[in-house]
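Study the following:
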Amino acid sequence: MTKPLALVTGASAGIGREIARLHAARGGDLIVTARRADALEALAVELKDAHGTETRVVAQDLGAAGGARALIDAAGGRIPDYLVNNAGFGGTGAFTDRDLDRDLAMIDLNVTRLVELCHHYGRAMKARGSGRILNVGSTAGFVPGPFQATYYATKAFVNSFSQALDEELREHGVTVTVLAPGYVETEFADVAQMRHTDLVKAGGATAESVAEVGYDAMLRGDLVAINDRRLAAMLRTIGLAPRRQVLKMIRKRQQ
């Protein structure tokens, strides 16, 4: 029996690595990609020893120009059963004080590469008549984010795009799930220079628990997966609050 194949981006750490581990534990094979070859190779050895998983390692900078095409070529024409778009990064600070190239690179990775991979593999899955796509968005995508303006906006795109794409593809046997977690305890906070913020100091969920919520939601074909019920309830009501009040509340948590 052929094992289900998952392609996971951003698989060297955090949610991506935990989804790869979970998929392997449940009997699947993998294509994993991230910049850090040593971390990916170590993961491949770990999963081979633990589960007999066959893992193709693609060490590259997905955010670089041509990154999506390079990954597609490295996959060797294989069409995964599951596509997990997890790669991304954030950054804090007043937008006009931030390095513009850094924010444009954020858009390239968080948005453009995700769209490119969804287009290529979504088309192939549609032709095949089956497939599952999991896009890692964020609860940040449901509200504007002062002092993380670009990051919040990229996740708003992912949240919206994923749901629209699901509506288009579902009738062809392909589902798209957006995983929208709150703050997760990963190295993301270090890359985004967020350790000083109230949001991070309050603590968050583990990458393992969020990965399981997202993976299982993808298998069920859920539209949106939020790992925290209280957070989901808050998001349903926050739209009723005055927008200026919401902006000030979020600003306080980011500074």
Q: What stands out?
A: The chain has one domain: 5-254. The beta strands are 5-9, 29-34, 55-59, 82-85, 131-136, 174-179, 184-185, 205-206, 224-225. The first strand starts at residue 5 and ends at 9. Confidence is low (pLDDT under 50) at residues 187-203.
